[in-house]
Fold this protein.
Amino acid sequence: MRTMLAKWRNGLLPMSYAVMGVYLLSAPVLAGDMPSSPPLSVTLPWPTPSANDQTWHLDMIGASVAYGRGFTGAGVIVTVADSGVDVNHPALTGKVLLQYSRNYMLTAPGQPYDPSQLTPTESIDRHGSHVSGIIAARQLSGVAAHGVAYDADLITIRVLADHYTTAVRAGDFYPTYEALNYFAALPNSMIYNASYGPGVPEKAPQQLVWNVYGVRDDPHTGAAARALEAGKIIVAANGNDREDNPAGANPSGLALLPYLHPSHANLGVYNDGGDDTDLTKLQHLPGQIIAVMSVGDDKRPAYYSNFCGVTASWCVTAPGGDLTNNRGIISTVPYSTYMALHGTSMAAPVVSGALAVLVQANPGYNAQDLAHLLFSTTEDLGEPGIDKVYGQGLIKLDRATDGPTSLAADYTKTVAAGATEYWSRPLLTSGGFTKDGDGILTISGRTDTAGHVFAAGGTLAVDGTLTVGQYGLSVGQAATLAGFGTING
């Protein structure tokens, strides 16, 4: 199976089980956008992009508000399974934890296998460095671009290359399977970024549905389940095939796995070859797969991005750029250079970086807490509510880091009509509280109270976890209790 930059604009790193191959989910800058002067060794493309061009994706998700609250991903480790990383890039130096990082790829066909070879040997292997920079690159003097969680660290697992076949691997195993298996056992990292998946080669027939033959028994599926059983999060890019393939109305690869069930096999989404595949158990484990759809700087779907489709309830939207219609995401590439790329490969690490920020903000939250927090604080795009294009909506770090951490006893929270406020932080109070006003109070994190909770007016939405003591929860006639979370007590 071929690993390539499909059409230069829709790359996707392939997973070994995929019939169509595993591809990178990004693209380099188009030929006309390549810097002509000075040479490529400079820090930024030429002419130098504005600060806004370098950080528009961070602005879109409200990252600066989270930073102002002190949340930058410090102390959090994100695992990136990709094409390697330029460990000597000034924005990444010291961020890659070499003692935990692994290489499962041969350096080149016919060459000796070096398990410590994390840095690509050619500048064309830019995908992994770009993804890593979107997550955790530090800001350098004179450069506005930086990672979403710029104080986080990285574990790099080199599993694919921009220009080698997936057959180029070390030993009798598939690198992406080994990566997931290794991640499942890591004690210090909860987040796995998968900017790869089954892609459609340039000359392949148009895909009307996704072919998932053999996925039920594929070792990747078992490795993914082990990671979820360990309470971890897999952030999976949706894929970049929608422009030419009707199957792109739904994600492919890891993002699609939890949907597979015998009753879904003939609904025009996928073909499992009569395997009666049932992977819906993946929706009921301690961990979580989060699918990611990509938008440009206008918040419209990027032309290449597969929609959320049938995965809408575990799918979010994030900026991944659209170089054809507006801007790409500027991030780190070999060697000591920055470049603009676009793809769901770029949207996925925005989500992984955002999760790293939320882990720092809420160190006691588990994978389900974090997923509910991410889902319930999104900006609604498209049709009202969860929809088949944008899923849960656009992730927002400003909302996801909002709310008090303590309350005065018998506190009354009034939310005006037309407004929504979010309690995202862990909130512990010995008293109770009253929700009043015609607006919406969303408990998107964990709120624990020993006193009486009373919804007097408007909507009390429990999308996270509300724990009440012996005095319980009551809802007045003028109020509504709603949400997809949990109430204990």
